[in-house]
Amino acid sequence: xxxxxxxxxxxxxxxxxxxxxxxxxxxxxxxxxxxxxxxxxxxxxxxxxxxxxxxxxxxxxxxxxxxxxxxxxxxxxxxxxxxxxxxxxxxxxxxxxxxxxxxxxxxxxxxxxxxxxxxxxxxxxxxxxxxxxxxxxxxxxxxxxxxxxxxxxxxxxxxxxxxxxxxxxxxxxxxxxxxxxxxxxxxxxxxxxxxxxxxxxxxxxxxxxxxxxxxxxxxxxxxxxxxxxxxxxxxxxxxxxxxxxxxxxxxxxxxxxxxxxxxxxxxxxxxxxxxxxxxxxxxxxxxxxxxxxxxxxxxxxxxxxxxxxxxx
Length: 312
Known about the structure:
Blueprint (H helix, E strand, L loop, with lengths): L1 H25 L5 H26 L6 H24 L6 H12 L3 H12 L2 H26 L7 H5 L2 H14 L6 H12 L1 H13 L5 H5 L1 H25 L3 H11 L6 H8 L4 H35 L1
């Protein structure tokens, strides 16, 4: 019950922020240009700051072996989602297919997964989630970038200089250093990281405001995608966890992260690269609401499975 209440509370907060963005747009306080500029700020400035800050905060808490596993598990989870995404949506138009597949692959590990893991698992879970955020951003800015911007060539420069890789390149060495980071550097990083979730949810609300409400019910592909994102992908990943059997905190944290709804980046990338931002907004909003039911189920199953494994 505590897991259910924690998840419901976190989701409710995000829905309030989405609603705020909805109202701001309906009242013409937030314009199309404003949403585009906030999107660019989130992707290119806030994202690397979030990664750097996460790695600094978790310095020295886990060794190289567990660090590797903490990075490997979200990579496997993403791989499962990639396989599912490319098995479906073949009869959609090219633009809708891209958005639906992107939405299936990338889950909300940063905006939603991190707070949930902290609330349910605790600080040790946040350490594991930090590496999942790094993996998410690296894959987003390689595979995700290429999916959303097919005209661009994925060069070595793009791979190495995308926001996710820049954040990791700066943050990972700091993770291994023992000296205190000066507050003149640490505080701006923390402040920029803190605007990540509220700004992203407000932007999503802005684009939800531009969607015909009736299409939320009538667009069955969004519900099909949500089933892939919230049920099929986490269920298959749970099977992987049962085979690998990571230690307790990592087991549960990894399961929560894999069960999160569509990443807010689906909207941010759709805006940035001129894809169907309305479809992406529906994908995020619908999957976030449905996750109130699905995340607690997978969390409870993971907790039970972990206890069973530990007792054997």
